[in-house]
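Input chain follows. Return structure tokens only.
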Amino acid sequence: MIVVVDYGVGNIASVLNMLKRVGAKAKASRLAEDIESAEKLILPGVGAFDAGMRTLRQSGLIDVLNQQAVVFRKPVMGVCLGAQMLGRGSEEGDEPGLGWIDMDIKRFEKRAERKVPHMGWSHVSRNYEHPLVQGLTDESRFYFVHGYYMSPDNDQDTLLTADYGQKFTAAVAKNNIFGFQFHPEKSHRFGMQLFKNFVELA
């Protein structure tokens, strides 16, 4: 069973719908016992970093998430804000992140040639081969809505990159922890392939 963590912030219905389409057993829950019994976890999120972290903290789920992700090393996928929350913190605010990946979240600088936030479809490039991106091609593109981007300390933690007037990290992977800056649940067949790969991860 895959549990989508329902802490009150996120596009949960779309994530569940995509999981259903790839044949996964999944449900949304804010119960610690469901998170403990899950095989894999998805941390969604939309909106501002500080608001997301405060809401997650108020849910009382951070301790059980730390246990399952860091101690028991269950596969965890963060989506959009949920991916940013995997790091130490964000230039968007002052709240500490989960700290599961050594990275900071940085703001796109406004320039005359680009609008911020970055909204729309962008192609991604693989930094290295990984089961999570199996089946993706150079034609694969994903839907982004963000004004901030992930900046890992270690280049090896960057799984996918994209370009928006500058090259930036579009996906991170470190051991059992994965994060996508884009919205795979809104990215049609390309997003479906990612969810399928996550479901099939050993």
